[in-house]
Model the fold of this input.
Amino acid sequence: MRVAIIGAGFGGLCMAIRLELSGIADYTVFEKAGGLGGTWRDNSYPGAGCDIPSHLYSYSFEKYASWTRRYPEQPEILAYLDMCADKYGVRPKIRFDTEVRSARFDGRQWQVTTDDGTERFDAVVSSVGQLNRPAYPEIQGTESFAGVSFHSARWKHEHDLTGRRVAVIGNGSSAAQFIPRIQPLAERLDVFQRTPNWVIPKPDSAFGTATRLALHLVPGLQRVYREWIYRYAEGTLYPALARGWSANLLRKRALGHLHAQVADPALRAKLTPAFPVGCKRVVIDSSFYPALTRPNVEVVTDPIVRITPKGVETSQGLREADTIIYATGFRTTEFLQPIEFTGTGGRTLSDEWKDGAEAYLGISVPHFPNLFLLYGPNTNLGHNSIVFMIECQVRHVMACLPYLAERGPMEVRPEAMAAWRRQLGAAMERMVWGNGCQSWYKTAQGRVTNNWPGPTTLYRRLTALPPLPAYRLTSSA
Ligand code: NAP
Done:
């Protein structure tokens, strides 16, 4: 059996490692960039890191006692992924600088086309991520800017910000991480905020020598610590997103954080969101607010009218800038774009998904046999580790592979997809994401296509069920 994996980030590497461990050696990982790591390769801005604790933001089969901090920073995550690729021997199977352009099911196999030509595979596992294509704002005049501009996920490290007038557009998790790092360098920093975010503290610190030694040496300690972080996220953060018992507590925690860190009532008012906590991704950071209170920083809430050669023009006039940083997020609802997937009967994924992406378990799409998605539609989380979800998905794919190897192409039944859609819709009603805010979790029409609306324990159970009842042989379609 030949398997193509698209993307060498957390998901693609996990899939490759599982195949390697189970003796399925004929696989290729197509990676469009020159290095592995996906989002953790692309997002190298100052202060980049993860707001999920290190010991949970890692594979369950490769627990890592050497994390230096409670919350990992980008270089350490990338080093971890590099270590995994080498330890499990998957690096030689990664074809770097090779972008998959299209994949077409020919009735038996997938024809995967890159700039180097077309190859056939029995199964395709797409692991291209949800946060991989930068979104640039549709503001008039962006090309006319005479200074230097870049997106947070395409940081220009060679561009020294010392003594510059810097404009940051956006105030999500990325901006919250790099603003405290660049504020001391910039002569002036204007933060253009369209909507304030809820912010809660990130209790980060370096592990002391004794803790690290204990995590290395005490049998089971790392497992128990990991389990504790997981249970905490599931037991207290998830209910807040499901409008449960902790929603008010989380709101109070965020308001308390704001009051503790921002003394100026006018700035506090600007920074107080008017939507329910969790509707947009909660920012988890302890140094963002203090940076905003520094004398060289201003939070600008006047709407942006256009970008001019000299800077950013708002409804109140021009704010000159030498550098503009777009912290404007990603094109999150355009799943798998721009790769063109063609399934049975000439159906294309972009057509099937014109009203929003959807997949059974977030993994399988009717009429697209032997195609599996990792971190696909409705599998993002606002409260726990995506690595957990990826491992559930990889386990499901591994359970499907023996069937398709023995019996030929298989695809999810449209009835199973319809039932899934109904259950997902019902679960989504409970969640806080639907009303009150616009976010990257949903399409312009308001359909939440990115997030998983249940506890992750439920997702684990569902993905662990024997796959067969939900699938059929493609020849019998
Ligand atoms: P984001 O959360 O989507 O934030 C984009 C920001 O840009 C928002 O403040 C948005 O304002 C603003 N914006 C977009 N278009 C604009 C326009 N035309 N004019 C003015 N403002 C505009 O993006 P992100 O900060 O890169 O984060 C994306 C996700 O990546 C996060 O939610 C998180 O899941 C993940 N992430 C995680 C970590 C971590 O620690 N784990 C760190 C960084 C990122 P509105 O709010 O008004 O739309």
